[in-house]
Amino acid sequence: MAQLHSTTSCSSANLVSHGAKRAIQAVVSSERELETSSAMKGRALRGKLNKVVLAYSGGLDTSVIVPWLRENYGCDVVCFTADVGQGVKEMEGLEEKAKASGACQLVVKDLKEEFVREYIFPCLRAGAIYERKYLLGTSMARPIIAKAMVDVAREVGADAVSHGCTGKGNDQVRFELTFFALNPELNVVAPWREWEIKGREDAIEYAKKHNVPVPVTKKSIYSRDRNLWHLSHEGDILEDPANEPNEDMYMMTTDPKDAPDQPEYVEIGIVSGLPVSVNGKELSPASLLSELNEIGGRHGIGRVDMVENRLVGMKSRGVYETPGGTILFTAARELESLTLDRETIQVKDSLALKYAELVYAGRWFDPLRESMDAFMEKITVTTTGSVTLKLYKGSVSVVGRTSPYSLYRQDISSFENGQIYDQADATGFIRLYGLPMRVRAMLEKGL
């Protein structure tokens, strides 16, 4: 991951770039913008901050937030963008957009490998699924972005962080709980909870008033969030739970009816509860997930349509595409059927529900989740082996599983009599196991 080795003032005229293709980029304001910034510092409307790190996407909302922060808090604005696999198009032109909005610096970090290794894989190992359906795509991404923002704030000497989340959603909580956990001294600015802007038209007018070019990208009728794990869709006709989604809404997955007419078999290699290979080929976490997204996507795998309970109290309807993640959850679950005993699986399943709730609620850095994660790591140490799955027109079915630590014994499970399991022993077991039911029946019959 790229790191900022030397911090330049936002009034400097240098372009800072270190390391890899998408390291850290500093976008420097023009002299006109600096003069505007100085003027704004003299008339901050809501208090005074020195420098704010803003979670930045380059869209209309975050483009407007930049001048709003400068006007209302008299501060320099450092835009931060995390690459968590949202796609090349989402990353294009960010330097120019940030500069045009009045930001003094843009920081971009490639977090894809860390995202999969440190956030997605632990949730996969834990079996964390929110309300039986949601694989936590957005929930897992927010804490790694917020953590990186805290790091950047330290690197550039910022005294505040800001995000563009609305006051109705879950993401505001996820960002801010991470800020609280990692640096409680940082100020947090949430414009959507403060400003008078009510919607897209207000934002456009504000942008024009402050000479901020309005992004010319076509406005989607859906609210979407994409990363390497999933793509979510909300809004428009989806706001009525009775409406079937339009097929042209989907972007990661083929319509199952148009998927290949022949099934495809895929073998997932797993070591200690974490996937390491696809069809015998070892891959990095991000590369492995990308490979499975492509495979699962063409077979229409991983579509989920659900009404969920948001943390803030309301219900919302969302449609999710998680092709690679659906394959991995199926594989992990099937391998555990070999390697974990009944009591362990039951406890793991009960804790997985709480684990998912904590992640959904933004409590990634809560000691409880971290402690539960240690438990999950411990009990899956022998969950090693491979699972072969059949993908066919939207379905994933297991066709084979093997593990050197398998608790399945064919000589015991066979219907044939053997030395280890004597079928006659079942008589006493059943009489003792059923004794409470037998006593209750005797009581009811007066025996």
UniProtKB/TrEMBL annotation:
InterPro entries from the UniProt entry: Arginosuc_syn_C (IPR048268), Arginosuc_syn_N (IPR048267), Arginosuc_synth (IPR001518), Arginosuc_synth_CS (IPR018223), Arginosuc_synth_type_1_subfam (IPR023434), AS_cat/multimer_dom_body (IPR024074), Rossmann-like_a/b/a_fold (IPR014729)
Signal peptide residue numbers: none
Protein name, as recorded: argininosuccinate synthase
Listed HAMAP family: Arg_succ_synth_type1
Pathway: Amino-acid biosynthesis; L-arginine biosynthesis; L-arginine from L-ornithine and carbamoyl phosphate: step 2/3
Domain Arginosuccinate synthase-like N-terminal: start-end pairs: 51-213
EC number: 6.3.4.5
Subunit-structure text: Homotetramer.
UniProt entry keywords in alphabetical sequence: Amino-acid biosynthesis, Arginine biosynthesis, ATP-binding, Ligase, Nucleotide-binding
One annotated GO biological process: argininosuccinate metabolic process
Keyword Endoplasmic reticulum: no
Class of this enzyme: ligase
Pfam families assigned: Arginosuc_syn_C, Arginosuc_synth
GO cellular component term of the entry, any: cytoplasm
SUPFAM superfamilies attached to this UniProt entry: Adenine nucleotide alpha hydrolases-like, Argininosuccinate synthetase, C-terminal domain
GO MF terms, alphabetically ordered: argininosuccinate synthase activity; ATP binding
Residue intervals of the Arginosuccinate synthase C-terminal domain: 222-439
